[in-house]
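## retry 2 of 3
previous attempt timed out at serialization; input unchanged, resubmitting
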Amino acid sequence: MKSLVCTFFTYLAVTTAFAYDPLKVPEAALVTPLDFTVQDASRERALPIRVYLPATTQAAPVVLFSHGLGGSCQNNPYLGKHWSARGYAVIFVQHPGSDESVWKGQGPARIPMAMKQAASVQNFILRVADIPAVLDQLTRWNAEEAHALRGRLDLTRVGMSGHSFGAVTTQAVSGQSLPVGGARFTDPRIKAAVAMSPSVPAAGSAERAFGTVTLPWLLMTGTKDVARIGAMTLGGEVDSRLGVYPALPPGDKYELVLHGAEHGAFGERSLPGEGANRNPNHHRIILALSTAFWDAFLKGDAEAKAWLNGEGARSVLEKDDRWQRK
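## retry succeeded, writing output
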């Protein structure tokens, strides 16, 4: 608690010197999220999405979010609420085959193996194809006269984000090269990316995978960021999380390492196998840094970039958190 109080007063002192504040939100009421289904006829695949729109009716920059293994488009509402309040149309994408259907209806003894089987190359390929399919449909809906999203989306400014398996998805569609033949799934419509619990590929070098990434990337992890289901580790050891940033080329690349943060710190609750005590400041840090990043690289806000690159970013951190850029 003492650490949180000290961080709060440090933040107050710095924000009085900066006009920019990524945690400030307007008083306008939040818009109730909207649910749709993207039908990808070419793959006979139905993709549920949840959309958080800003209170304004003007076309807003778009941020996509890809959930982790066993998740859904209803996860991480704290991100959707804050980012949309800050002027973004936030689209949470659900990936059938690696979503909550993996564990629902399974007995406790079956869940770990079912989850491990779902963390497959086949589901990775499905996920990276889901993102352009959603962007294509959003483009159509944005132009459709009677649709609720008509004119609400600025698809010239698209950000991509995700957690865990969603971070792997994010990496793939925003610049990573795959180890086999250097294949890439980069979607040119994506302008910046935030990867929560990123990881290096299981095969090939990190330098080859990430050395040609040109987009702004923000990586977020924790010193205890290991994906577990009970006693079973599903990959993504801490060394793998920390191996991405050193392999990235310079140029608007950032890394946050939250001291003591476990894998579930980026969601709403602790995950199986994790401790019950969560640091209440972690979500505040995640929201502040991610919002400033989106403002800097999707809205072109010079004050946001100055805050991100200067003392503003450090003002929200606790003393043992690590923040670096290149």
